[in-house]
Amino acid sequence: MEKTDIVSMTYEELENYVTEVLQEKRFRAKQIYEWLHVKLAGDFDQMTNLSKALREKLKAACRIPEMTIVDLLVSEIDGTRKYLFQLEDGSVIESVLMKYKHGNSVCISSQVGCRMGCRFCASTLGGLERQMSAGEMLRQVYEIQKESGERVSNVVMMGTGEPLDNYDQAVRFLRMISDEKGLNISQRNLTLSTCGLVPQIYRLADEKLAITLAISLHASNDETRREMMPVAKTYAIQEILDACRYHYEKNGRRITFEYSLARGVNDSPQAADALGRLLEGFMWHVNLIPINPVKERSFVQSDGESVVKFKNMLEKYGGNVTIRREMGRDIQAACGQLRRRYMDKSGKKEV
Prior knowledge:
Layout: E1 4-5, H1 11-21, H2 27-37, H3 52-61, E2 62-63, E3 68-74, E4 81-86, E5 92-100, E6 103-107, E7 111-113, E8 128-131, H4 134-148, E9 154-157, H5 167-177, E10 190-194, H6 198-205, E11 212-216, H7 222-228, H8 237-251, E12 255-261, H9 269-278, E13 284-290, H10 304-315, E14 320-323, H11 337-346
Parallel strand pairs: 1-2, 6-9, 9-10, 10-11, 11-12, 12-13, 13-14
Antiparallel strand pairs: 3-4, 4-5, 5-6, 7-8
Helix pairs in contact: 1-2, 4-5, 6-8, 9-10
């Protein structure tokens, strides 16, 4: 019989499980939840204020998703830490710890692999292997906080995978990481990035989460976007923007649009002008991202002068425009690169 992923249980679910299934006193749920989500225990034997009998009962019926560090790279440039975790089924995923003046930010993966097929991203080269549980998402943050010895204050769902393609577990993660009984990270410090799955954006808006929604746009017209992102064949830019307006109306949170600049593809002044006109009427922030070079892909990073020109043109339309600071470039901190290298070296085949 498959053991229950206890880390993915909400506090209320754990209370019910402890009283109804394990036939234990209700206060035990509070103790267990604190061990899992505050003290960040990775093993039931660490739960020293539980009786040995209860710990054995938990070991027999439940599991804490394994999250083993198989590689850790530390940037000499900015201290960024890139983790390659192995999961209990042998799958490998990446997570990143980025250190800023305003606090420590962790970028987590939401799927093992990705099926979105974006043509500038290494994460999608092997396709989707499987979905991840909320517990596996949480454990990335927990293990990074334990290994680094530093408090995590911000979490971005921008690693491998499309969070809205794993909708239920992604939303469960967001609610649990911000639970006051756990790490209690403010929802305002949580960001979910999506390539634009329109029905799920509407659904997410109705969840009434105070998170930041980030849209991977990367083009100012559908033709260019289709060249870069297969999902654009299903959802037009205007459909995505309509969903974003609905999200803003429901939550009042400014939308972030991510725009990866590829030389000669989407970085012209004309493209910046078209993007600005597209976003008129929005309360928006555009994050310009010099595209990360991926050996299996043909896209080339825009030069610095083109990036600045694009930014200056876009700012005329009244929104906020930033150029993403490249973190951990010397350790392959871009999504999917470390995992890809590991798979190649180990001879493992991706699905």
